[in-house]
Amino acid sequence: MTRPDARPVWQNWGRNVQAHPARIARPGSTAEVAAVVRDAVAAGHTVKAVGAGHSFTAIAATDGVLLRLDRMSAILATDTATGRVRVQAGASLHALNPQLKARGLALPNLGDVDPQSVAGAVSTGTHGTGDKLFGISQAVVGVQIVTATGDVLEIDEQHPWFGAGRVTLGALGIITEVTLQCVPAFLLHAREEPMALPAVMEQLDQLVADNDHFEFYWFPHTEKTSTKRNNRVPPGTPRQPVGRFRSWLDDQFLSNTAFEGINRVVAGRRSWIPRVNGVAASTLSAREYVDDSYNVFVSPRTVRFRESEFAMPREALPVVLDELAAWFGAGHENISFPIEVRFTAADDVWMSTGHERDNCYVAVHQYWRSDPTAYFAAAQDIFTAHGGRPHWGKMHTLDASYFAGTYARFGDFVAIRDELDPGRTFSNAYLDRVLG
Length: 436
Ligand SMILES: Cc1cc2nc3c(=O)[nH]c(=O)nc-3n(C[C@H](O)[C@H](O)[C@H](O)COP(=O)(O)OP(=O)(O)OC[C@H]3O[C@@H](n4cnc5c(N)ncnc54)[C@H](O)[C@@H]3O)c2cc1C
What we know:
Layout: E1 10-11, E2 18-19, E3 23-25, H1 30-42, E4 47-50, E5 65-68, E6 75-79, E7 84-88, H2 93-102, E8 105-106, H3 118-123, E9 140-146, E10 152-156, H4 162-165, E11 174-181, E12 183-184, E13 187-196, H5 197-202, H6 204-210, E14 213-218, E15 224-232, H7 244-268, H8 273-283, E16 287-292, H9 293-297, E17 305-313, H10 317-329, E18 339-344, E19 359-367, H11 373-384, E20 389-390, H12 400-406, H13 410-420, H14 429-435
Parallel strand pairs: 3-5, 4-5
Antiparallel strand pairs: 1-2, 6-7, 7-11, 8-12, 9-10, 9-11, 13-15, 13-16, 14-15, 14-18, 17-19, 17-20, 18-19
The structure holds flavin-adenine dinucleotide.
Flavin-adenine dinucleotide binds near residues 113 and 128.
C-alpha cells in the first residue's frame, strides 16, 4: 500500500494502528543495523524495529525509519551442553520452534500464537501460562543491542542492566541478537474440557498448582468455560496429535471459520450475543492429545480482534471476574469473545508484568469490526483497582505516572533509557506516554 506522497503505510495485525514511516530498511547484519541507525540519526529521523506487528498498542509505530529484521533470522550458535542458543533477533517463533526441536531443544513456555519475532515477543514481555513458569523474556540470558550512537552493547547475566535488557519495550535500541536458555525438547499432554465457571473457581488453586500449564476461557454472559491443562509427559511417550479432521473441525472450523461468521452476524445484532455465547461454548467438547510442546501451546488465530490484558495478583482473580460479570449484568454491552485467564510465577525482569509477583492474567477481546473503547475502559478500571499491569503490547490508556507506582524498578529503567537514548531516537508517541 502506498500513499499519494509515496510514503509506505504500515499497520499492525489488529488494524487499529497505522504509521507512515519515512523509509523502510531491511538490514542483514548487526553492522548494517548500526549503519542505518547512524544514518537515521544524522538525518534527524527516529528509528524503530518492527516484528510481526502483533502488538495492539502503537508500541511499534514510527514515522521515522522502520527496520524489518526478516533477513536476520538465523540461529547463530547452539550449545547443546547448556541448552543455550544464540539467534538473530528477527527470527519468528514459528520458524524457530522446529529448528530448536531439530537440536533437541525447546523454549520452556510460549504464548498462544507464534508469528511474533523473537525480539518483538521478548520486548513486550510475551507470556503463556504456568504456575511455576514465566514469560519468554525469562529465558533470555543475553541480548545484543545497537544503541543510538551506533555502538553494539552486549548485555549478559553479569551486566548491571540485565534486569532492564530483557523487556525493553524497544526503548533502549535495536536488538540484533538474543541468547535463549532452552530446555530439552518435550511433549505435552493436552486435556481440553468445558467446565462451569463456579467449579473452576472452586478448584482453582488445585488446577493451577497441579498442572504445568493451566488456563481457561470464560464466555461472557454465561457461566461456561473452556479449560486447558497441558502437562509434560515422561520421555519416550509417543505423540498422539489431534486427528486431521478433528483438528480442522475444532481449530479451523469452530474456533475460526464459524466464529468469524458468528462475529460478523452479532456485530449488527448484539442482543443475540448472550444466547450465541451459550451455544458457542456448548459446541466445544472435551479432547486429549499429546504433541510437541510448541504445537500444543500455539493455535491458529484467523478471526481478527483487538485485545487488552492485565496482570494482577492471583488472589484478586475471583473479585475481578465478579466485577466483570457485574458489568456485563448491568447491560452496558454484550461481548462475544471469551475472556482468557492465565497464570505465571514472579520473575526478576524490571519491566515484566511478572516482576516480583505471582500473577493471574485476564485478557479481554473485541471483534475488530466492533468498537472496544467502552468495554476495555471498564475492564481497565477493574484491573487497575487491583494493581493491574497492562501487557505492553495490548491496549490500555495508562501513562508513566501510573507505571512509576506499579513497577519498583521503573525509575532505574528510565534512567538507563536516558543514558542510552538521550535524543529519543527509539521513541514514539506510545513510549513517550508510558515512559515519560
Ligand atoms: C493473535 C495474537 C495473539 C497473541 N497472543 C499472545 C499471547 O499468548 N501472550 C502474550 O503475551 N502476547 C500475545 N500477543 C501479543 C504479542 O505477543 C506481542 O505484542 C509481541 O510483542 C508481538 O511481537 P511482534 O514480533 O509482532 O512485535 P511488534 O508488535 O512488531 O513489536 C513489539 C515491540 O517490539 C519492538 N521490537 C521488535 N523488534 C525489535 C528489535 N529487533 N529491537 C528492538 N525492539 C524491537 C517494537 O519496536 C515494539 O516496541 C498476541 C498478539 C496477537 C495479535
